[in-house]
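Q: Convert this sequence to structure tokens.
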Amino acid sequence: MGYAVYFISHAKEGVFKRKDGTEYSVIRPSVANTYNAIIENMTDLYGYMHQEVQDGVQKRVITLRSKDGSISCGGRFQYLPEEIGPTYKDLVKALNDAIDKEAETKGEEFVTDTAEIHIAEELNFDDLMDEFNDVIGNLKRSYPDEEEFGEKIAPRIQQIVERYLGRGKKVSQCTREQVEMLSLIVADLKEL
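A:
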């Protein structure tokens, strides 16, 4: 359709442990892992914009490839540079150069300018409402003690619902126009 969609997030540094017990850190988006996994798998380009000192001058750059794995970034194109400037022009040039290099090495027939159209799966409100009720039922069965459920799980359910529908709102008040929100609520609840 001629649109470019951007997802923007703050960054956070996560510290992880290897099997041998040593720690390493990775700069990554501060969004929930569920959303990050979806976005990362659907994007063509995944970069990290930050300040860097070059020749004694502080400049903005976008890191597209991390040699040591300390930055979560990358893309679908094999020949993207490690870093580019912060402008749209820099981005377009880097993408065009990467596409041209890929066409040169793999052959023109593998790289086309034909757009692929992906139609999103239609969400069914009634099915999602049933799924929501099933997930809540399973959570209640996991905590047969009502007091424990009320202390540990109920506040987390409320927090998830309010994140998408607004403070004081309940899933029972959800309208068919909010089917996407309901889908996100169900996905988050499945992670409890």
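Residues 11 and 45 are 16 Å apart (CA to CA).
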